[in-house]
Amino acid sequence: MLLDTLSEVKNYVNGQFVGSGQRSMDVISPLTGETISKLPMSGRSDLDEAVAAAQRAFPSWSALTIKERVQVFFKFRALLAKHEEELAKLVQLENGKTIGEAKAEVAKGIELCEFSCSLPQLIQDEILEVSRGVECRTSHAPVGVVACITPFNFPHMVPLWTVPNALALGNTVILKPSELVPLSAIRIVELLKEAGLPDGAVNIVNGDKEIVEAICDHPGIEAVTFVGSTKVAKIVYKRATSNLKRCVALGGAKNHLIVLPDAHVQMAASNIAASMSGCAGQRCMAASAMVGVGDIDHIVAALCDESRKIVPGENLGSVITKEAKERIEGYITAAEQAGAKVLVDGRNTVVKGCENGYYVGPTVIDYVTPDMAIAKEEVFGPVLAIIRTNDVDEALKIENDSNYGNAASVFTQNGGMAKYITERASAGMVGVNIGVPVPREPFSFGGWNESKFGVADITGKSSVHFFTRLKKTTTKWNPEAKTNWMS
Length: 487
Ligand code: NAD
What we know:
It contains 17 helices and 20 strands. It is α/β, with parallel strands linked by helices. It has two domains: 3-252 and 446-472, Aldehyde Dehydrogenase, Chain A, domain 1, CATH 3.40.605.10; 255-403 and 407-432, Aldehyde Dehydrogenase, Chain A, domain 2 (3-Layer(aba) Sandwich).
């Protein structure tokens, strides 16, 4: 039974849930294929109201000290912890991941919130006496109204990548959740209100392409964060920046794990299987291509054993839509037809009791060649393509040739080799014997190449540069400071 505010999703403007006269869309749970709610597809007039509310809230919210603002996030953190179970169930219902994965997502949200609480320690102003009696001070001023556009794969965590930091740093926010998973965002704003966030400081507009384009064009929005596919990241980055907004747009990924024969067999096998299948492979940090160097048959055998322990409906959730299931299975079939060997096959998976859910089982495909679509494109399912190479430079060339550059990892016991590979991998987040090399706070999250457009990263210390602008104030009080060239 969903809470009242979730049975029919509304926009959230100035602290109130408001209807929209535009068309609506069903929200379907991928676990069962059932309709669980519906949401409005907002238009420009809905956005105008939300931006006006955010602009009205900005002067008083930004005038608070950062120490005052983060008090909201101390309380919000406690509320997230108090409602952990309920929030996790909501993530599972709308996204289809397992309850364990949903709980990990909520726990990660709590960690993000803790980072926001630490911001006063991180961004103290700098002051220097630049000339006798003259002080120069840099301070971090907020940017204004920030829009945050989010994808389906982490309905709770990705909004929390940006919303708490943007707010703690003095901005006000318009959140545009993925239309496939709009429910978790509702609970986030309800809990922010309960934590004491003033009305209008955060607002939600629901919808699809039309509202995203309106966000990119709206003159009242100063900055846009986007997380989603590369195709849309490019559209959003170009459109927002051509309207002179600052923008950071995170895109898709094709993450390579380079595996050497000396890798610790069990550690490599279990980490790679977990990376490939976690959240049904719908993570931008998921292992997608394993590039073996030399004889790695013993690791492939252990990896297949590990993969067979992953059971759809038990420790593997569903993928997001029927179309996603068909697309993923299409990649597997095309690779097989092109000569690759399917060692573990997740096609045609049906989970008892959830026959209409969208499940793909764990899939391991060996002897994939670099020219196959499955080797180059983002599959976004629990599928690992194994590409065989003869030496490390050949493996690195495959990784370097990818258009993407989110994550890369090397599995070896040889420190020198690990250093050689991590230094040459063309990816923003690199791991050694780590399947999912996510940098945890205070480190920042962001890829390279077509996995991120824009300068700053989206979380952690780097995000402070995105959500603030530096004010430089030069001050002289004493006549003894005399007149000089800067007077
Ligand atoms: P998506 O690009 O389809 O959608 C993301 C957002 O863009 C949604 O809010 C959606 O409403 C909007 N949108 C969709 N099509 C649009 C269009 N034509 N014009 C304007 N807006 C549009 O992404 P998704 O399917 O929700 O999420 C999966 C993708 O996100 C994967 O590619 C994944 O790798 C990526 N992702 C990347 C990161 C990262 O950190 N790099 C993190 C999470 C997800």
